[in-house]
Amino acid sequence: MKYTKATNYALHTILFMIEHAQSEKLSVYTLAKHFNVSDTYLSKILTQLVKAGIIDSTSGANGGYFFSKKVEEISFMDIINAVEGNFALFKCEFNESKCPIHKVMADAEKLMEGYLQSKKIYELAHEENFEINEE
């Protein structure tokens, strides 16, 4: 299983925002510059996070992105679902309701999703050896 690059950027962007701008707005330009990615590309990812209710945005001279949800409540799964969508990773092409392979895969996915839902990204910012990549 592999998540897209967009999920990678979304997770890192939220963590960066927790560390640098919990109470202020960050522009897409500032975020894109930090991650050395196009602001158009990052803007699409940020739009998905806005639609999911994780962050919000305002336009104008003092505009930017800010948290619309308490940062302590944002889970890895919230961010992943915002970018990847909420769908099964494995779909049996045969008789799904009787397929033993489907059951094993579905059970494994539930365990992983439960773990990612329980892990809050905010916790990473408070780990002793935490260091965000400052390029």
Description:
There is one protein chain. This protein is mainly alpha-helical and 135 residues long. 48% of the residues lie in helices and 6% in strands. The protein is built from five helices and two strands; from the N terminus they run αααββαα. A two-stranded antiparallel ribbon has the order 1-2. Helix 1 crosses helix 3 and helix 1 packs across helix 4. The chain is elongated and about 60 Å long.
Which key terms come to mind for this protein?
135 residues, mainly alpha, Arc Repressor Mutant, subunit A, 48% helix, 6% strand
Q: Strand order within the widest sheet?
A: 1-2
Radius of gyration from the alpha-carbon trace, in angstroms: 17 Å
Would you give the CATH topology?
Arc Repressor Mutant, subunit A
Envelope shape: elongated
| Model regions low in confidence, pLDDT < 50 over at least 5 residues | none
GO molecular function: DNA-binding transcription factor activity
GO cellular component, one term: cytosol
InterPro entries: TR_Rrf2-type_CS, Tscrpt_reg_Rrf2
Protein name: Rrf2 family transcriptional regulator
